[in-house]
Write a structure and sequence with these properties.
The protein is of the alpha+beta class. Helices cover 12% and strands 31% of the residues. The chain has a 5-stranded mixed β-sheet, with no helix packed on it.
Length: 65
């Protein structure tokens, strides 16, 4: 299915947000996720279904001042 991942078109076979995080190689415990602009806590990713056209953000924390 086609989704928008971090502002870019992306094709995935993942059906849940947790599976997408794993697919992208992101460290699940070290990223924040959002679906259509709404924060999704780590504990809810496995039950958060993806659908075609959804906007997903997978963000790593940045350090600096």
């Amino acid at each position: 299915m086609r989704i928008d991942l971090n502002g870019d078109p992306y094709t995935t076979r993942s059906r849940t947000l947790a599976a997408l995080v794993e697919e992208t190689g992101a460290e699940a415990g070290a990223v924040a996720t959002a679906l259509d602009g709404r924060f999704v806590p780590r504990g809810l990713r496995a039950e958060t279904a993806l659908r075609a056209g959804v906007r997903v953000e997978i963000l790593s924390p940045m350090q600096g001042g």
